[in-house]
Amino acid sequence: MRSEVLEExxxxxxxxxxxxxxxxxxxxCIHAYYFIKNAFQWMSKNSASSYKLxxxxxxxxxxxxxxxxxxxxxxxxxxxxTYTCPGNEEQFRRMLYSTExxxxxxxxxxxxxxxxxxxxxxxxxxxxxxxxxxxxNAVLKWMPADVAARLDYEIPDDVFxxxxxxxxIDFIYSLWTHSDVYPKSDLWDTVRLNIxxxxxxxxxxxxxxxxxxxxxxxxxxxxxxxxYRRRGFGKLIVLAVTKVMGENxxxxxxxxxxxxNVSLGLFKNVGYIKHSTTLPYVVVEDPDTSGP
Length: 292
Hints:
single chain; nine-stranded mixed β-sheet; 9 helices
């Protein structure tokens, strides 16, 4: 019988775990750090999505963590965020093998895995009799909160920046390229509970571009309507959301597909710092049984 070493993280330990343990590896830990912070915030506000956060209570200092985000739409995978402090990879491997908290049959999506842990996750998926598939490699870009808060920008006369509302969700979701793994409830929670801003036409109020602080606590869902690209609206909305995040004490981070050169250049132009290694997204699939 396997022994479960993970326990659910109480809110009382969250501040110490994030500020004293994870921050020793800043900014490498930034994704797990804000995933945890956002999870407790959403759980206190009755989000449609649900979070489970697990840690090793008798060895807090090693920073081993698994977070699971489940959504009400059953056909969508759970999102799993993993982390352990450098040097603890073997303990993480043993924990990942023994834990019963991950529902492997639900084909989870491992989001932004630290590269040093990628092989462990992929091997574990195979040992569970399943197959791992690379969904994408993400480039992590981030900015210190104080720098973000000092950003400035000008808004063209023909547009204004306003809050997104739930009335915009259907339209936004129709243009979201990641709707294959992220359901509409992600946007519902984000718009209601987090920062979500849009660039709107002063002429007719049309929503032209938007970005949000998403379910993992980072800047996400940056989209400019196709007919309004190359007019600076993407940069404008990134600046606006980044600044508000900084003013709220959050160091913004974004996970950008390594093939998305337009977004990579945009975030560089805004002043985001590039992390040194890519962070893979890995999806779990059924094994290939087609034979030779």
